[in-house]
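Backbones bend. Shown next:

***
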Amino acid sequence: MREYFEARILEEIDSDSTVNVSGGHTWPGSAILETMEQSTFHTQIDERVQEKVVDAKRQTREFLTATGCVERFQLLCEKKEQQRVLPFIGAGMSLPSGFKLWSDLLLDLTADSPALRERVEACLAGYQYEDAAQDICDTLGEAALNHDIEAFLGRGGYELNGAVKLLPFCFQSGCITTNLDNVLERVYLETASSFGDPVSGAALKQQRGFVNPDENKLFKLHGTAASHEGRVLTRQEYDQTYANDVTLSRILDLIIGNRHLLFIGCSLGVDRTVQELTRLFAEAAGNYPQHFAFLPVYDNTDRETRRKELAQANITPIWYPMDEGSDHDNRLENLLVCLAEGGLDD
């Protein structure tokens, strides 16, 4: 946890304290602190880290109490301590690093065709993401789609930011993602807990047995922006990849095993993933793990309807309020700090 907070703490020290020296130069407070005896320096940083952890727990308990989700979160923490939670990471976790949500990106890909944009907007309104991608591909051409995906998601010159950097402190037994960018790979590499070779797109079909829960492997359901080979985005690619008995639900079942998914940064509309999980739950309702999701709740959120929709896939929402002045990434940071630290209790 110190690794996550230390840079921020040093920035806070510098913003609060500088020393003027000759020639009009200033000496940052963090540099002065680091020149002190090392044990004193580390003690002060550790104390500040602990203050941030305590504050994260306080804030999290407050907003989970407001949404009636304290008990749900505590249950999730118990499952996580048993190493039975597998994170499912959506595009919301890449936003702070400069990437867009998939729906917004699809709209950006229609910049050259107003008529196409109208059709894509209609698809997105019904969570028909693969149909939207198919229309873009059919209208502009496969090469244009591939070029734009690489331009928007395949770039490497970006700074990692946000709560996504907490994931290695919470989970060391793999991740599932629909993201095409390489944010997760970089995050885990920076904490010396890198994944084995990611399994991407159509290569998921090669998964024949249940995944070893002790293996830190990354599963990229849609593929990667670095290569269009084996990517699964359009309706045609879905139909060709998951044909006959090699269904996406079957592959998800092998990856999940008896673990509980935790959706983070996912909107969880009635899209392909939710539909496949709903199918799995319907086929084995009595022997199917409960899943969880961190989801924002707004003043106009119909929680009852959303709860019913998610219940069909055996997903329990853990709501965090998004009132005026709230920040998604800050809420997720607090939740993940608590997960990493074993729950809400001090």
